[in-house]
Amino acid sequence: MRKGIMQCRCGLLLCVSLLLSGCKSHYVVTDVQSSRIAIDASLDAIQSQEALQLIAPYRASIDSMMNTVLGQSEVAMSRNRPECLLGNLVAEVLRLSAARVLGQPADMGLINIGGLRADVAAGDFTVSNAFEVLPFENSLCVLTLKGSDMKELMANIAIRGGEGISGATLVFNSKNEVVEAKVQGQPIDDNRMYTLGTIDYLSEGNDGLHALPKAVKKDCPDGLTLRGLFIDYVQEQTKLGKKITSQLDGRVKIIDN
User: How far is CA 73 from CA 65, 123, 128, 173, 207, in A?
Assistant: First the structure.
């Protein structure tokens, strides 16, 4: 009996094998063509009413939140190098926010201009504006640097052609060489320790800021995103009856050789 069953199983496997071998495709790929489909506003002309009805209540809720006015911007603020209004403001927010770790503002604040993704218009500043300017989930990092590493950081910034800084001044020439660098109005002292409020992305040495991973101390508290800190700052200014503002004061300057 067992022998018969084994023979049947073997026969069945043989039949399946023959059938599969007889199902080979005779088609051969001779050409492959591709094209790009633009995912942009042109697709708005082809809308699914069913999909629009589905997302309508969620869109209304999100729009209501994103259109909330947080405060007022006194001036239009752009982002560019070597110095810009928006970079100065965001760097100041980081310097002040370091007080959440240090108990006082840091010596210096630093933000990369590439991390600022939109300009700010004069007038209403909304939650949506905050997300447009700061779309990434970057968080606050407070670093302690040796004076020698702070000098290297200034050299890194000069090579980049400038970044947003607060509490410091930097002058460099057309060859991107540091001519003068000061923190809190004083030349950088190799024998001093300096505190810096920045973001986690830069603390890892990204964007050519290779001096930052050399920090002797690094504290990146959970939950303190730069966008959240900026929103807090705008709301605090509003409560004080103030508008957010900034000014150009030559803190980052390039001169001829």
Answer: 19, 5, 14, 33, 29
**pLDDT one-digit tens code per residue, 148-162:** 999 999 999 999 999
Token couple for 160: 């980049």
CB 75 within 8 A of CB 245: yes
Euclidean distance between CA atoms 170 and 35, whole angstroms? 48
50: tokens are 């069913």
The pLDDT tens digits for 184-234 are 999 999 999 999 999 999 999 999 999 999 999 999 999 999 999 999 999
| The CA-based dihedral angle spanning residues 92, 229, 97, 144, taken in that order and rounded to the nearest 10 degrees | -90
Q: In what order do the strands lie in the sheet with 178-183?
A: 186-187, 178-183, 168-173, 252-255
Could you give the C-alpha distances from 114 to 78, 126, 132, in angstroms and in order?
12, 21, 13
Give the whole-angstrom CA distance, residue 254 versus residue 81: 10
Give the whole-angstrom CA distance, residue 52 versus residue 240.
41
Q: What is the mean pLDDT of residues 68-89?
A: 97
- pTM for the whole thing? 0.80
